[in-house]
Amino acid sequence: MTRNRFAVVQSLVVVGILLLVLGVAGFSLHYQGVAVALWSVGVVSLLGAGIAWTALKPSK
Question: Which residues, 6 or more positions from 26, have their beta carbon under 8 angstroms from its beta carbon?
């Protein structure tokens, strides 16, 4: 995996985690609509990072 591709995967993971945290904070502040949207996008971002990691990982 090249350095640029790893940076993309790493960015997806960081963004996904931040969105999950914001989603949890939204639930605690009773902003359910926004919290569900942020949490859903965070999950999709983490799934995308996992798929990208698997697809870009060099095979042995």
Answer: 32, 34, 35, 38, 39
